[in-house]
Write a structure and sequence with these properties.
Elements (H helix, E strand, L loop, with lengths): L1 E10 L2 E11 L4 E5 L6 H8 L7 E6 L2 E2 L10 E4 L11 H11 L4 H9 L2 H4 L15 H12 L6 E5 L7 H18 L2 E5 L3 H7 L2 E6 L2 E6 L2 H12 L2
Parallel strand pairs: 3-8, 3-9, 6-7, 7-8
Antiparallel strand pairs: 1-2, 1-4, 4-5, 9-10
Helix pairs in contact: 7-8
This protein binds adenosine-5'-triphosphate (ATP).
Protein name: ATP-binding protein
Pfam families: ABC_tran
InterPro entries: AAA+_ATPase (IPR003593), ABC_transporter-like_ATP-bd (IPR003439), ABC_transporter-like_CS (IPR017871), ABC_Transporter_VariousFunc (IPR051782), P-loop_NTPase (IPR027417)
């Protein structure tokens, strides 16, 4: 369970995040939407202790993410390409992570097998460095890396962006599979309203850093979001 309490982030005089309370239960697929600059990435970055909040904090299973490191083995995330080691090939990168997470060669192989359809023969066994991959393929490497080591919580910032239509469908299938097989808690930010409403149990809408809607009923999600975004 993730618990956000009195979270505030301010840059000079601008308050970019102001979330009074948010509880995300285990196994929930939590979607985060909002216009550019609404504060989605800032919320994820604070949850990963990459940005220090001005006030309040985030607890993961009771652990304050800014005060202990123990939550890190339970969380996987891909926010942007800076999280990757661009001087490695995807194979070298996965092998490096395998060693860090102390997984067996077989564990890594089984994990990557789940991604074969999504990888579409473009990622493994190639001599291409991560820095030379297309944006979509780079995203696929980041997502596969975020899910490595069986994390209980997976945070993905704009996972569908830059993926071709078949890859978007394959990614949705993968997320739903992981969720039903292992009760993974997914936190997904997206501008793609169709995809998030399809796979998420709940959608939180941010506007200028504040939660203005917390939608938990599937039937009303699409309608409410379409009317908000004018889509
Ligand atoms: N280091 C920083 N210094 C000043 N302002 C910042 C900084 N980082 C983020 N911001 C501001 O915080 C606000 C929220 O940004 P954030 O990236 O969280 O939005 P977002 O919802 O993820 O947007 P997008 O949909 O465009 O990715 C923006 O106004 C942004 O300019």
């Amino acid at each position: 369970m993730i618990s956000v309490q009195g979270l505030k982030k301010q840059y000079k005089n601008a308050v970019v995040l102001d979330v009074e309370e948010l509880q995300i239960p285990k196994g929930e697929c939590f979607g985060l939407v909002g216009n550019n600059g609404a504060g989605k990435t800032t919320l994820f970055r604070i949850m990963l202790n990459l940005v220090r909040p001005t006030g309040g904090g985030v607890l993961l299973d009771g652990m304050d993410v800014s005060k202990t490191e123990n939550w890190k083995s339970r969380v996987g995330a891909f926010l942007d390409e800076h999280m990757l080691l661009s001087y490695l090939t995807p194979d070298e990168y996965f092998e490096t992570l395998r060693k860090i997470y102390k997984l067996s060669v077989e564990d890594l192989k089984l994990h990557l097998e789940k991604f074969q359809e999504l990888f579409n023969d473009e990622i493994q066994g190639k001599k291409k460095y991560i820095r030379d991959l297309s944006k979509g393929n780079l995203k696929k490497v980041g997502i596969a890396a975020a899910m490595l080591g069986n994390p209980e919580v997976v945070m993905l910032d704009e996972p569908f962006e830059n993926l071709d239509p078949s890859s978007q469908v394959r990614l949705k299938k993968l997320i739903l599979q992981e969720k039903s097989d292992r009760q993974v808690t997914f936190l997904i930010s997206s501008h793609d309203l169709n995809h998030v409403t399809e796979i998420c149990d709940r959608i939180v809408l941010l506007e200028k850093g504040k939660v203005i809607k917390d939608l938990q009923e599937k039937e009303h999600m699409v309608e409410t979001l379409n009317s908000y975004f004018g889509t």
